[in-house]
Amino acid sequence: MAHPADPAISDWTFVRRVLIVLAIGALALALWVLSDLLLLIFAAVLCALALRALTAPLINATGLNQAVALALVVLLIVALCAGLVLQFGSRLSDQISYLMQNVPQALQSLSHQLDLGSVSKEVGGSAIGALAARALTIGSSIVGAVAGFVLVIVGGIYFAASPGLYRRGLIALVPERWRAAVTSTIEDSNFALTRWLRAQLIAMALVGVMTGLGMWLAGVPSPLALGLIAAATEFIPIVGPIVGAIPALLLASTQGWDLTLWALAVAVVVQQLENNVIMPFVVGKVVELPAAVGLFATVAMGLLFGPLGLLLGYPLAIVGDVAVRRLYVREALGKPVDIPAERERHANAEDAAE
Q1: 88 near 224, Cβ under 8 Å?
Q2: How many CB atoms lie within 10 A of CB 50?
Q3: Which of 13, 100, 215, 216 has CB 3.0 to 4.6 Å from 220, enough for a Cys bridge?
Q4: Over the stretch 298-308, which tens digit does the pLDDT of each residue have?
């Protein structure tokens, strides 16, 4: 004979489930509210990876401990930046001022010539138009941008000084049965991001130099400032080079269409060299993210989180790719899957062992 269910137990079970749902909802809301902070933390992690990549050769060559090598690298970076400012600061300031004065006028003139006003009205209500509008507000809050930059740098130094401490704390939050998989995912993501970040820094430097020289040879005004803009926007793959070429094209358009074509030729040649020579040579096959996936992931992050999401969309896509391959396809579905970072990390370990 079946016994009737205890009403008290049933009520408690229902209340517990409701509380769990509410707790999950509150956690999701908190993560959404703190999304900018979480993105800054991720940016600080990228900064830490860059610092550790710079300290590793110094440690291998001199035998210094991590803290001393990190301090030396930070001091060298500060000295290099100070030297560049002293050497090129006044010239760069003049060229940036020239850009600020002439690019808006060139854009307004081009808008009148091509009747872009009606197009902007059509695009303005779309998601892409919203992304463009939000991207143009990157410099709207100088104080906030500077504070975020300082937070990323300081946080990156702390992360680089004691990476194991923060990694162990993160893994401790994961259930025991998932810790091995999560640890491997973090290691693969770390390896892939380090390789990609090193390639991006090299590409930024080379693209900035090639763009500046190319624009100078073509006769485009303010080549130093244009090279700096090209280097900075190169950090955002796929979307960034297009954005970085716009000021050069607008500035060249004020001097005539012939110069505009030369500026376009410089931008295309530089990007072809970056896409087909620099990045494949430095990254290798550690990041096999399809171009369309990287493009839409970057745009999606920009739509969700604004300029900061656009800036960090591609490296987040790299982490997401590693996590999906390992945690979902391999662990949850039980299917074999190739993880490029894992494959190359193991190959490097075997080479080092030999």
Answers
A1: yes
A2: 20
A3: 215
A4: 888 888 888 88
* Percentages (nearest 5) of helix, strand, coil residues in the chain: 85, 0, 15
Burial 63-94 (b: 16+ CB within 10 A, else e): eeeeeebbeebbeeeeeeeeeeeeeeeeebee
**Counts for the chain of helices (H) and strands (E), in that order:** 15, 0
Q: Which residues fall within 8 angstroms of residue 96, CB to CB, at 6 or more apart?
A: 222, 225
The residue with tokens 């040649």 is 269
Distances in whole angstroms, Cα of residue 119 to Cα of each of 105, 107, 244, 299, 352: 19, 14, 22, 20, 57
Q: Distance (Å, rounded) from C-alpha 279 to C-alpha 25? A: 41
Residue carrying the six token digits 């900035």: 208
Give, to the nearest 10 degrees, the angle between helix 116-124 and helix 66-114: 120
Give the domain ranges of the chain.
Answer: 35-116+141-353
**Using CA atoms, how far apart are residues 248 and 268, in angstroms rounded to an integer?**
12
Residue 333 in contact with residue 344, Cβ under 8 Å?
no
Q: What is the pLDDT of residues 336-348, one digit of tens each?
A: 888 777 777 777 7
> Could you give the C-alpha distances from 317 to 36, 293, 304, in angstroms and in order?
17, 8, 14
Rounded distance between C-alpha atoms, residue 25 and residue 137, angstroms: 30
Residue 337: partners with Cβ closer than 8 Å, 6 or more residues away: 325, 326, 329, 330
pTM tops 0.85 = no
3-state secondary structure 279-302: HHHHHCCCCCCCHHHHHHHHHHHH
Distance between terminal CA atoms of the chain? 72
Structure tokens of 200?
Answer: 């991006």
